[in-house]
Amino acid sequence: MATAFAGAKGLPFYRAASTLATMLNAMLGDDDEPYDFNADMREFFGEFLYKGAFNYATNLELANRAGIATDLLFRDDPRGVAEHGYVLSALQQAVGPIGSIAVNTGNAVNMFKEGHVERAIETIAPSFLRNGMKGTRYLLEGATTLKGDPVMEDINAYNSLMQVIGFSPADLSSTYEKVSAAKGYEREVNARRTKLLQMYDMAQQAGDTDMMEQAREKIGAFNEVVPAKRITSDTLRKSIAARQAAEKDMINGVRFDKNLRPEITEKFFED
Known about the structure:
Elements: H1 2-6, H2 14-28, H3 37-51, H4 53-58, H5 63-66, H6 68-73, H7 78-94, H8 97-113, H9 117-124, H10 127-141, E1 143-144, E2 150-152, H11 157-164, H12 170-206, H13 209-225, H14 233-248, E3 250-251, E4 254-255, H15 261-269
Antiparallel strand pairs: 1-2, 3-4
């Protein structure tokens, strides 16, 4: 029954399989290619089998509520993960309602400071009021970011009403999941690229030819997997030059704005 409501994500031990697959990929997989278990499963099963028939037929997000294994330790929250990442979302759920209140209060304070008063009130409101405000906003504006950029412009009256009673649109939830996966991919690609640049730079500084050769091999593999972020000889030269320039703006190993550096030096570091 859970599988009918939650699809592949509702299968027992799905979360355990996800964790195991991620660990095995980290140990045995291709170090140059980012890996996302959920994205692979979504592509393999398709949306109908991945989230289940009920989600597909009603366009209501029930899969993340009905998943057996998922809910035991970590309930999927696509929007929360897209905005805060897995770590903060997991910590928030681990400490229960107190964690949610603390995180929501902090977010609301920041929204007030930035002038997003209505969204701040929505964030800290009790769930029945929050769902009502959210459903009304979906009907009038669609789903938007704080800056007003559209996430999904056309949310019909049915889904807006269902949001009022607590059921998010399934297609919107899937959009947040894809955004989260895409941002995770982007972060991992950029982190690996930075790591390779640092590896080559360190080897060059130390005069370690073996390490430089290893870095070149890893860079070649990276370039094949992510040609859009290709690392060239010119990239390496610019990276080294940028590091050398940054060192000039450092005080005690910390980089400061070069325009403020004289004032900072005089104010904080001169006896």
